[in-house]
Design goal:
The chain is an alpha+beta fold. It has helices at about 15-30, 60-70, and strands spanning about 5-10, 35-40, 50-55, 75-80. The protein has one domain: ORF SCO4226, nickel-binding ferredoxin-like monomer (Alpha-Beta Plaits, 2-Layer Sandwich). A hairpin with a 5-residue loop joins strand 2 (about 35-40) and strand 3. It is globular and about 40 Å long. The chain starts with a strand and ends in a 15-residue tail after the last strand.
Length: about 90
């Protein structure tokens, strides 16, 4: 199953309440399509967010977002690659 990335922009910044409501609206739309959310990254200023999914294809994720009425900036398939474990000297403490 491919990785699908969804990017968002928020102006004004995303509130906790809007984040909660968005995930509640999206959850059943993802479940019915067997889309698995892997992780989400929210910028510290709360103006950008990226969500990563495993899904059959881009259209399946697009359909889930349309059904939930959740706007997004872009949606694209990606490949996961890693260079190995992080260097402890570069990990914030």
């Amino acid at each position: 199953m491919p990785y699908l990335i969804v990017e968002y922009r928020f102006d004004p910044p995303l509130t906790d309440e809007n984040l909660r409501m968005g995930f509640e609206a999206l959850k059943p739309c993802l479940e019915v399509r067997n889309i698995r959310r892997l992780r989400s990254w929210l910028a510290e200023d709360r103006r950008r967010m990226i969500c990563e999914y495993h899904a059959t294809d881009v259209q399946t994720v697009r359909d889930a977002y349309q059904m939930a009425k959740i706007p997004y900036m872009s949606l694209w398939p990606g490949q996961l690659f890693e260079f190995g474990p992080p260097d402890p000297a570069h990990v914030p403490t």
